[in-house]
């Protein structure tokens, strides 16, 4: 089945064909009512980070913007010397605490808890302790406290001079874009490491940020259900800080929330689009081989998922090797069903091996991805969250397939480009088929349909699954040979549900059903799906 003996691991078009001679990025950074830019334009590219914009700090403390740790409105109760507690500006407390000499893990814990005193009984720092006592050598530990930690603190405390405009929250159902310098992001992440963000520590349902991911790193330092996870994610993040503290990064990263109104979504049963090109391989990964493509993050609706907790699968790994993605958690409200988050320009800092329990940090990664005219690495990552399935059979209901098709389409479509313009392909794989338990054979088709509708080719990484690669490629060849359109395929998928479940049990596999329906002259391809 594969095309030639030397390339037995892949089928279909080449990656060059999937790239389509086009960069996957957004148009240049230009401020507008729906694009907030936090640095001065034009960027002077002489190895210096872009200058903050505006010149003087504008403080804002409201429900439309990130509540910054340095805001003069951020107050905290403190009790000094047996007196009644008084409200003090929290940033003063943060500065006083962080400017003390910190030479041990216990001192660092005490400092972090001094401005998070409500949590002193609840947070532990066992992962951090493990790192310094059992993983790092004595030299590495003393180096951390004497050199790296003071640098992280300095970076954090510079935030009010580095990020001078209020940061709008990327709220549901509104397209808005934010562009930061990498240095601004580094300062935000240094604050996250030191757990300075106010109002972000509670998971209570009615709390202000209940629909946002957490951002302070405290959960990463903590043991989970009695077990102390290996500090590999922390190693990646400390490596990132080592890099950005030793040489200030000078690029730019853009975060764009994508929302498509239901009335603007494709009418799938009417689509006349033919399937675009497919490259399918059992070798490689999205991040290693997806250069020049729109790379899919198998996301949680709260982007980053368990990156600051226990999670360590595709999304969490991507976020720790490219930590600028973590900053999205600060301002991105949970994704709704027709929303996605596009991040352009983030840099990869770490190498790794393994996956999940075997994940390990494996040293520095030098990202050679070229930059665009706005100083962004030409790396585009789109976060789309699949359905989390309890009962796997429900994924074949037309309404659930419709949800996944729309979600993928929202992630893949590119409203900034004119119809007919060449778009870079998508790099994806078993989206929704690991932690979320979906069927990769179905998800491949849905992603292929969404990519075709959006005018992009698809590179699909099966993550070592050669059987899946061959089965998908065989069906793909059959579908393209028969010139099956996206609309026809959609109608067939709807028929599959009607025909293949009896009493809630699956009686026919998806691909045999499709082959049979297509080979049958009186197949039901022309029928519309009544369930939508
Ligand atoms: N490149 C290509 N394929 C991959 C890669 C990679 N780097 N890593 C994994 N796979 P999963 P989900 C394949 O479970 O099911 C997170 O916690 C591999 O076959 O990460 O959408 C999020 O925050 C794997 O089994 O994605 C969400 O909460 C499959 O992709 C949740 O998991 C799915 O990877 C999303 O779960």
What are the defining features of this structure?
532 residues; alpha/beta; binds ligand AR6; 13% strand; two-stranded antiparallel ribbon; disordered C terminus; 17 helices; disordered N terminus; ten-stranded mixed β-sheet
Describe the model.
The chain is α/β, with parallel strands linked by helices and 532 residues long. Helices cover 33% and strands 13% of the residues. The chain is built from 17 helices and 16 strands. It has helices at residues 15-19, 90-98, 105-114, 126-135, 138-157, 159-162, 182-193, 218-221, 232-246, 286-289, 314-321, 328-331, 398-412, 440-454, 466-481, 486-500, 510-519; strands at 10-12, 35-37, 75-78, 86-89, 177-181, 252-259, 278-281, 294-299, 339-344, 350-353, 360-364, 380-385, 426-429, 458-461, 501-502, 505-506. The strands form four sheets. A ten-stranded mixed β-sheet has the order 1-7-14-13-8-12-9-6-5-2, with helices on both faces. The longest helix has 20 residues, at 138-157. Residues 1-7 and 521-532 have low confidence and may be disordered. The chain binds ligand AR6. The site of ligand AR6 has 24 residues, from helix 10, strand 8 and helix 11. Ligand AR6 is lined by residues 285-287, 298-300, 305-306, 311, 313-316, 386, 429-436, 461, 463.
């Amino acid at each position: 089945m594969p095309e030639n003996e030397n390339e037995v691991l892949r089928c279909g078009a080449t990656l060059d064909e999937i790239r389509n001679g086009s960069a996957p990025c957004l148009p240049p950074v230009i401020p507008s009512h729906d694009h907030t830019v936090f640095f001065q334009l034009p960027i002077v590219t002489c190895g210096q980070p872009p200058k903050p914009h505006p010149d003087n700090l504008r403080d804002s403390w409201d429900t439309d913007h990130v509540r910054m740790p340095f805001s003069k409105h951020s107050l905290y109760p403190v009790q000094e010397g047996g007196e009644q507690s008084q409200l003090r500006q929290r940033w003063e407390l943060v500065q006083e605490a962080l400017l003390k000499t910190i030479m041990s893990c216990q001192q660092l814990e005490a400092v972090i808890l001094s401005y998070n005193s409500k949590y002193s009984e609840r947070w532990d720092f066992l992962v951090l302790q493990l790192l310094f006592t059992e993983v790092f050598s004595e030299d590495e530990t003393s180096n951390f406290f004497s050199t790296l930690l003071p640098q992280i603190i300095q970076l954090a405390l510079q935030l009010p001079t580095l990020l001078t405009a209020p940061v709008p929250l990327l709220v549901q159902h509104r397209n808005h874009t934010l562009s930061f310098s990498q240095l601004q992001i580094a300062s935000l992440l240094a604050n996250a490491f030191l757990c300075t963000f106010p109002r972000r520590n509670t998971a209570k349902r009615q709390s202000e940020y209940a629909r946002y991911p957490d951002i302070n790193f405290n959960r990463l330092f903590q043991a989970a259900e009695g077990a102390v996870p290996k500090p590999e994610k922390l190693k990646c993040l400390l490596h990132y800080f080592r890099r950005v503290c030793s040489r200030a990064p000078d690029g730019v990263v853009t975060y764009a929330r994508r929302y498509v109104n239901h009335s603007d979504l494709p009418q799938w049963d009417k689509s006349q689009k033919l399937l675009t090109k497919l490259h399918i391989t059992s070798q490689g990964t999205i991040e290693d081989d997806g250069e020049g493509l729109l790379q899919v993050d198998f996301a949680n609706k709260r982007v980053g998922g368990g990156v600051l907790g226990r999670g360590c699968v595709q999304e969490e790994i991507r976020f720790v090797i490219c930590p600028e993605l973590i900053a999205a958690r600060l301002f991105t409200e949970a994704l709704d069903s027709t929303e996605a988050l596009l991040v352009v320009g983030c840099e990869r800092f770490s190498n790794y091996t393994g996956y999940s329990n075997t994940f390990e940090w494996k040293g520095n990664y030098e990202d050679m991805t070229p930059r665009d005219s706005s100083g962004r690495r030409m790396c585009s990552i789109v976060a789309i969250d699949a359905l989390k399935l309890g009962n796997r059979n429900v994924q074949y209901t037309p309404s659930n397939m419709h949800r996944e098709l729309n979600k993928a389409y929202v992630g893949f479509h590119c409203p900034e480009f004119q119809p007919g313009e060449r778009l870079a392909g998508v790099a994806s794989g078993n989206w929704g088929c690991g932690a979320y338990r979906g069927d990769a054979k179905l998800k491949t088709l849905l992603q292929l349909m969404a990519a075709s509708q959006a005018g992009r080719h698809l590179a699909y990484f099966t993550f070592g699954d050669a059987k899946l690669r061959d089965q998908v490629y065989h069906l793909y060849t059959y579908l393209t040979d028969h010139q099956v359109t996206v609309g026809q395929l959609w109608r067939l998928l709807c028929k599959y549900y009607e025909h293949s479940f009896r009493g809630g049990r699956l009686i026919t596999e998806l691909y045999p059903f499709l082959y049979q329906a297509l080979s049958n002259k009186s197949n039901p391809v022309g029928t519309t799906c009544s369930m939508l």
